[in-house]
Amino acid sequence: AKENGKNQMEMYSSEINTLTMERFQMENQLRKALEREEFVLHYQPQFHLENNEVLGIEALLRWNSSDRGIVSPMEFIPLAEETGLIIPIGYWVLKEACRQNKRWMDQGHRPKIVSVNISARQLQEKDFVQAVKSILEDTQLPTQYLCLEITESTAIKNIDISMNMLKELGELGIKIAIDDFGTGYSSLAMLKQLPISNIKIDKSFIRDMDVDKDDGAIVRAIIAMAHSLELTVTAEGVETEDQKNILLQEKCNYLQGYLYSKPLPAEECLRFVQE
Ligand code: C2E
Ligand code: CA
Ligand code: CA
Ligand code: CA
């Protein structure tokens, strides 16, 4: 039995080593990704539910690694957050998204709002507001065409810091949306203290809302409450006509999901920008 125990220990520690090595490798590759220009943004249109007009576009990061191929953000964003690499990567994303949105405007299309995902770690940077300001100045994108998406947990985690920063950003005319709403422990009343204008219902509630009574009830309650606080609501992850019809009936404002389009490279997203 003792020998068995030892073997198990060895097995565990070699598994841990493999994991550590794997992490270490990915970290090194992630460090080089910016200078190697391996990041690219894909864009997913967001629609007005009533008339199907395009309101905005969410920028979603993709890593096209020369060592590992396309890596999903679910795989590398957590590591980027832990290592702090999300700071330079996050600024790259902001700048690229603003630049692309300005380019579309300059081509003469009706202006759209570009939404960028922001990690908790980024909001902890003292000069985050200043950096966002310079990016807007550099790219010449008018402030009202930028929206920052922060998750519910990010907003609540550092509520005091977030409050001040988000206020400053709001005063600049930048829009703030609460992402993944319903997955954390905040209430809308609590969030309402922040200068936000829109909440995004997490796709986990949308997925089964047409078949699961509880999910349907949650979605309806969030929409009603948000409206009573004069916030607009986006449903993310909408995949079916049934889901869309219920959302329309409940007067949800905006829709984003595979039903209309998956995230696309900028050139392919142009057809939605042209609308
Ligand atoms: P998120 O911000 O909640 O983004 C929505 C995710 O749902 C995206 O996954 C999108 O591709 C996916 N999606 C959109 N429509 C549908 C649908 O109809 N059905 C389903 N099943 N999925 C749909 P993606 O692109 O893999 O991004 C995953 C997460 O990674 C994002 O979730 C966001 O939290 C994070 N992320 C992506 N880009 C960035 C970034 O630039 N910065 C930061 N900090 N996080 C990012
Ligand atoms: Ca988002
Ligand atoms: Ca989400
Ligand atoms: Ca998310």
TrEMBL record:
Query: What name does this protein carry?
Result: Diguanylate cyclase/phosphodiesterase with PAS/PAC sensor(S)
Which taxonomic lineage is given here?
Bacteria, Bacillati, Bacillota, Bacilli, Bacillales
Q: Which UniProt keywords apply?
A: DNA-binding, Transcription, Transcription regulation
GO MF entries: DNA binding
Task: Report the coiled-coil segments.
Answer: none
Sequence ranges assigned to domain EAL in this UniProt record: 23-275
